[in-house]
């Protein structure tokens, strides 16, 4: 018998019964899958600990599933529906906890009327087996590491109680050398004063309390967003099951500003049909006077805005729901697997774009392609025809696109650059129309030079309305 015990205190990940605070942002199935990822990451951590492992799980259908002895005749019709829809479709979930933690762990159901009592009874039950110290952790903190557990046991060498604080004012870990009911008495959970109230109560009773390392739990959509931010800064975190799943499940909103695009809209919509069931697509019309709107079916969300690319894109962003906002020009052609390309970049960056290419064989269009892609890498400047995508919170934090008549994408890049944001670029290219460039090599080169000079005038402070008059609308 080892001297230390570690209790994993968890629900069984059944859709509709776990991570419900994340609904409807995630579906019940997604919530269950996320919880499975939490458990798998914690199980990987447990392989390094020196303590005996116990899994204390919720009872009812979840408990029956855990023991592999679910009796369909002894559950309600509603729960039987869950059983049929989930268990029979995914047979492994009948014993999901055992499959994750293996035969070397002990398993027993939670008992008690409230959360505090259930945690106390779990610790009391395990301590009765003769352990010198016991630590209990929840499963909402997938970032917990073996070092956190080791530190908690080290604290118990000199303290009566150890608590692992969470960023929201609660705790994800509680440990003790004897089952102390006072830790959980007269306590309510789910608010920002849980840790403070617990410490104050224990110290008033003469108990010594030590703290473990602070961690972050995942209960809400905001918690998910903050986890994705931490993941971008922590390469080891990216290797976890939780990180991989949260990146794969990030929502993408495709926002397309349109105005008199009857020549390009049909081709774009055909390509968008391939991804419309896996993302949100919003077309924002700026008052088209041609046949553009006639080609847009009810399969796509269409909203209306004042004319102006910046205004239209901002309006689309306001009405979107995605974690990642992808601004796409109507004359662009998406590469294969565009959503996967976006998510791959957003794993490491908060803003990115596609590499750009043109169908034209003209030497100067090839030059334009090379310059544009290197501009992103070397100068951290991106233009709208490269398909800008950005973290939702970052987009609104920087004030959206500046509502100026032209060069909104250029100023947007300058704002990002001023904040120190690095722009990632996809491996695959987005093909964009060269309609802005006139036919003929010399004329193309002249247009490239003219656009460069206009950007210089903008940087030098020329009135943007004057620049806009020089910037002809090619539609």
Mean pLDDT figure: 86
Shape estimate: elongated
Question: In order across it, which strands form the biggest sheet?
Answer: 10-9-8-11-14-13-15-12
Largest sheet: 8 strands, mixed
C-alpha Rg, in Å? 28 Å
Number of continuous helical runs: 17
Q: What distance separates the N and C termini?
A: 78 Å
Find the structural class using helix and strand composition: alpha/beta
User: Ranges with pLDDT <50 over ≥5 residues?
Assistant: 60-84, 86-94
The total count of strands amounts to: 15
**Which bin fits the share of residues in helices?**
25-40%
Fraction in beta strands = 15-25%
Descriptive account of the structure:
By secondary structure, the chain is of the alpha/beta class. It has 17 helices and 15 strands. It has helices at residues 28-46, 61-67, 77-87, 96-101, 115-127, 146-155, 194-204, 221-233, 241-248, 265-273, 309-318, 338-346, 363-379, 392-397, 408-419, 441-459, 464-470; strands at 4-10, 52-57, 106-109, 133-137, 161-165, 171-176, 209-211, 252-258, 280-285, 301-304, 324-327, 332-333, 351-357, 388-391, 423-432. Strands 10-9-8-11-14-13-15-12 form an eight-stranded mixed β-sheet. Helix 1 (28-46) packs antiparallel against helix 9 and helix 13 packs parallel to helix 16. The chain is elongated.
What is the secondary structure topology, with strand pairs?
Layout: E1 4-10, H1 28-46, E2 52-57, H2 61-67, H3 77-87, H4 96-101, E3 106-109, H5 115-127, E4 133-137, H6 146-155, E5 161-165, E6 171-176, H7 194-204, E7 209-211, H8 221-233, H9 241-248, E8 252-258, H10 265-273, E9 280-285, E10 301-304, H11 309-318, E11 324-327, E12 332-333, H12 338-346, E13 351-357, H13 363-379, E14 388-391, H14 392-397, H15 408-419, E15 423-432, H16 441-459, H17 464-470
Parallel strand pairs: 1-2, 1-4, 2-3, 5-7, 8-9, 8-11, 9-10, 13-15
Antiparallel strand pairs: 4-6, 5-6, 11-14, 12-15, 13-14
Helix pairs in contact: 1-9, 13-16
